[in-house]
Structures
1.
Amino acid sequence: MNNAIRLSEKWFVRALWLISLVFAFFLIGLGNNVVGDLPQVEAELSLQQFMDPAAQALKQQQDAARNNRLAAEAALDQTELKRTGALKEHEAARATFDNWVATRQATGRVDQDAELRAHTSAMDALKAKETAASRGSEAERQKLLGAQQAEQLAEAAMVLLREAA
């Protein structure tokens, strides 16, 4: 009889161990779910929450300055392209004119003086076109410089607000 009690006691202990292991796995799973959900419980803090309300206006100013800079860069590219085209056109016409003048001097024909004046005035017009393109390019560079400086000032003010926040 004593053996029968011992056998049932052994199975009872084994059942208790099994129940405790199941309970342990349940608690581990529950703990993982609770810890996994913790980041979703609290709201994340951002720098924007601590910034001065004036920062929004400054951000808009900074965006406008960036847009102005981009527009100035695009306009400068266009004027540089025009200036380069005018410069090449003038150089090509200059080479043609120099060849024509050398030919005229070699032939010594006086009846081509009117044609010489026409070529000279055409060269002057091309040089004026090149000069105007250079002036336009310089004006666009000025606009770009102003836009870059405005953007840098807005960024510096924004950095100060970020540091304060």
2.
Amino acid sequence: MKTLTDQLTQYATYHRDRRNIVTHFIGIPMIVASICILLSRPTLSAELPWLTPGAVISVLITLYYLKLDVRYGVVLGAYLWACLAGAQAMAAWTTGAWLGMGVGLFLLGWVIQFVGHYFEGRKPAFVDDLIGLLIGPLFIAAEAGFLLGLRKDVEAEVNARAGAPR
């Protein structure tokens, strides 16, 4: 299994333009939230209405993030939990409203992502490696931490291997 730095470095090589990184701060959270919404139906247990495909997948993804890095895993697990809480409320909406919100956020998030990759002049990371779909949220969490002055060791290693953002 690749390390945290390996995964971030591979993803970062596709994301060195600061405008692209900014679009990812908007698009990735929208896409993650939309997937939680779209996977909030059906419930898998009448006794446990929160047990949905989205909840099961989110637990598995959080475990993966925790294995890569406990701190980022906790942050991303908390974000997924918040998305799931909102998605559960939206699952009670009419099918049209629920589906419209989920699909709308999903499409808008991807449009924003592709605008960023237009600035970058490079295809998205997931085109070459599907794990990029999981690493995107991790990359944004790491970039947010770097902006706050956290995990300078990780930032230095990623920038040494992928090049500094421009």
